[in-house]
Amino acid sequence: MFKIEEFDIKLDTDYIGRNFIYSDEVESTNAMLLASKDSNQNGTVLLAEYQSKGRGRKDREWISSSGQNLTFSILLKGEFKEQKIHLINLSAAIAVAQAIENLFQLNVELKWPNDVLINKKKIAGILLESISKGNKISRIVVGIGINVNQPNFPGQFEIPPTSVRKEFHSIVSREKLLSEVLNNFEEMLEISKRSGKKVLADWRNRCKMIGEKIKIVDGDKTKVGIFDDIDENGFLILRVGEKLEKIHYGDVSLR
Amino acid sequence: MSNELKIKSNGMDINLLKKLIKLVEQSEITDFEVAEGDLKVKISKNLNQVHIQSAGDYSRQAVLTQAPVFNEVNSKIAAAPAETLSKLHEVKSPIVGTFYRAPAPDADPYIQVGDVVTAGSVLCIVEAMKLMNEIECDVSGKIVKILVENATPVEYNQPLFLIETV
Fold it and tell me: Which of A185, A244, A245, B3 has the most crowded CB, counting CB atoms within 10 A?
């Protein structure tokens, strides 16, 4: 059972998580929060113990056992420009990485654009969904799934999963971890408003794939090249021979 | 694409020059210079160059390959008579990304040509960096044309749909 008091006492934010919704089961925290229209305030967090239709990119499922992990979404309202959204995306990945580093002193890496890895295994995934109308994006949900206390992961995976429990060799407090993530996220959002460069630099520092030969797969298309850098939007710059190509989607792996 | 040609001699052979230009055009070479006696020819081919300005001390110039699909679409729009366009409402992409007509690879498209939509109807998804942006229609009307192929790249502000408003 998630102890809301324990979470609340550690939460040190102005607006992220100040409106907190806890649910036993929803189809998808992202879908529910995005559909809630005007009833929820900026920064609302929806945490569900179980998602019956948890999702990832391209209709992939996010499967998480009930009560052991963290699956939640954060609602952001306003008027968002393209670059700002991508900085929010990178900020979320950094916030999760920082929280795991701060609380458990584990070595965390980021994989483009926003996977969080420990020892090449995936510990957290992030999917953003938004709605635009007339060229304006006014609602974004940041969906975050963190494997916390799940002891094992039966099945076949493209990237092997892991959990904080597996890496830290102990059951940990989900409440403290969630508050730490939200504290860091709000701080990163504030930083990103002042300087996108700081966010990009923080992201680069945690990505060990820059400079390496990588493969980018999307459906039946594959591109191979050197991971040159990320640009000001966070797009991946792939070097193929003498040419640089901007990549904005696809699954990245080391070649 | 703009081409630049500098000739610093009177004694040039036009045919030779034509051959050289053709050679450069068909090759990957962007700058070409040749000198023989008094004759000096410089051919430079300016490709679309984009500056990528990155954060921190990292900055460089780079040639970005452009998605051919975007160019095709653009030329199609440009070819359409202006008077037809003015009666139609364009729905544009708010972000750079990949255009999807359906919520999932095996699902039905949100809309087809001829469908009647209202403000708030979902038209498509544009995806970039694990951000799935649903584009809602901002007017009521009938879908006249879908300007982009499914699962192809779109640019910022690129028109995606033409809607005949009611």
Answer: A185
Q: What DSSP state is assigned to residue A203?
A: H
Q: How far is CA B60 from CA A229, B1, B33, B45, B73, in A?
A: 11, 21, 25, 20, 30
CB contact under 8 A, A230 and B54: yes
Residue B26 has pLDDT above 50, yes or no: yes
Express each pLDDT in A179-208 by its tens digit. Answer: 999 999 999 999 999 989 999 999 999 999
B131 to chain A: which residues are within 8 Å by CB? 85-86, 89, 128-130, 140
Identify the burial level of B122 via C-beta atoms within 10 angstroms of its C-beta, where 0-12 means exposed, 13-18 middle and 19 or more buried. Answer: middle
Alpha-carbon distance A41 to A38, whole Å?
8
Q: Give pTM, 2 decimals.
A: 0.78
Distance CA B147, CA B113 (A): 10
User: Which value does ipTM take for this structure?
Assistant: 0.92
pLDDT in tens, B67-119: 334 444 444 444 444 444 457 999 999 999 999 999 888 889 999 999 999 99
Is B134 in contact with A130 (Cβ distance < 8 A)? yes
Which of these, A75, A141, A235, A73, lies nearest to B134 by C-alpha position? A141
Identify all chain A residues contacting B151, using CB atoms and an 8 Å cutoff.
219
Which of B95, B118, B161 has the highest number of chain A CBs within 10 A, making it the mutation to test binding with A? B95
Separation CA A249–CA B129 (nearest Å): 5
